[in-house]
Design brief:
The chain folds into two domains: 72 residues, EF-hand (Recoverin, domain 1, Orthogonal Bundle); 55 residues, Orthogonal Bundle (Recoverin, domain 1). It contains seven helices and two strands; from the N terminus they run ααααβααβα. GO terms for molecular function: calcium ion binding.
């Protein structure tokens, strides 16, 4: 059975370590079933299915389109490494957003209340009027429940509010 690993970058240089590159190479070699140093769409499909996923033809094509930068219909190791580095950066950003969300979600219920928002801002010596707090909640609260959940928090942060 294949090992599924979580890869983390060092915060200092945001690049994979030599060990991580070696692990990526090991993963690449698992996909490259015939050893020709390329991953084809068929090899990608085979490994994904062995891992328990049922990718659609569109999902496979989408991954190939993302990874196959020279458009030769197959992925070499450098293309694979480039995609993995991008995925690592995305994972890091998500982890950072999760940490920030937990700072605001003081009671750990998975949503930020107006009171929690106010409390965190006050602890940072940022004082907002009640209307400003309400506006922040209103802008972010896409499901109109009066709270900011994690998805709404991400949208709020990305909007630059």
């Amino acid at each position: 059975m294949f090992k599924v690993r979580a890869f983390k970058m060092t915060k200092a240089n945001k690049e994979p370590s030599e060990k991580q590159v070696a692990e990526f190479k090991e993963s690449f070699d698992l996909f490259d079933r015939n050893g020709d140093r390329y991953i084809t769409i068929k090899e990608l499909q085979h490994v994904m299915e062995r891992l328990g996923f049922k990718p659609t033809p569109n999902e496979l094509k989408s991954f190939m389109d993302e990874a196959d930068s020279d458009r030769n219909g197959k992925i070499d190791f450098m293309e694979f490494l480039s995609v993995m580095k991008t995925k690592m950066h995305e994972m890091m950003r998500l982890e950072e957003l999760q940490k920030a969300f937990r700072v605001f979600d003081r009671n750990g219920d998975g949503k930020i209340s107006p009171n929690e928002l106010r409390t965190v801002f006050q602890s940072l010596d940022q004082h907002f009027e009640e209307e400003e707090i309400s506006e922040m909640i209103t802008v972010a609260d896409s499901n109109f429940d009066g709270y900011i959940d994690f998805d709404e928090f991400i949208a709020l942060v990305r909007s630059g509010f």
